[in-house]
Amino acid sequence: MQSRNKILDDISQMMTNAMGVAQGAKDEAGTAMKSWMDRWMAERNFVTREEFDAVRAMAQKAREENEALKARLDAMEGKPAKTAPKRAAAKKAAPKSATKASGGTSTRAKKS
Q1: Angle formed at CA 26 by CA 22 and CA 29, multiple of 5 degrees
Q2: What span, in angstroms and rounded, lies between the C-alpha atoms of 105 and 111?
Q3: Do 74 and 82 form a contact (C-beta atoms < 8 A)?
Q4: What's the pLDDT band for 2 if we cut at 50, 70, 90?
Q5: Would you say 106 and 96 are in contact if contact means Cβ atoms under 8 Å apart?
Q6: Closest alpha carbon to 82 in 68, 71, 66, 93
Q7: Highest averaged pLDDT of the listed ranges 1-15, 22-36, 78-92
Q8: How many Cα atoms within 13 Å fall on the side-chain side of residue 18?
């Protein structure tokens, strides 16, 4: 039979408790750092990603409504309607040229 050593049991218990204290200290430090960063960012008027995306979506919707109203106004005045803005066409053209320059093929080219 194996006898239990009181000193080794005490050391084992002490190490287990020390690990629990270390884990608690880590959690506390993480919480303190997060609250400090949140406070620092709030003082500098940074916005969250969700707020940025919401405003961006609102701006995109407003642009689309303005384009629709402009087309409607042009139709009422008898002017020919303009096509989509050149800026949007330029954004779509850039990835194609970048793909061709890198030697790759686009997915549309593969389907044809």
Answers
A1: 135
A2: 11
A3: yes
A4: low
A5: yes
A6: 71
A7: 22-36
A8: 6
pTM over 0.85: no
pLDDT tens profile 65-107: 999 999 999 999 887 656 655 555 445 544 444 444 444 444 4
Whether 20 has a pLDDT exceeding 60, the answer reads yes
* Residues found in the chain: 112
The whole-angstrom separation of Cα 105 and Cα 48 is: 37
**Cα separation of 92 and 84, whole Å?**
12
The label of the residue with tokens 């800026």 reads 87
**Torsion 100-102-107-112 (CA) sign:** positive
Q: Look-up: residue for tokens 């009181």? A: 6
CA dihedral for 74, 80, 81, 84, sign (positive or negative): negative
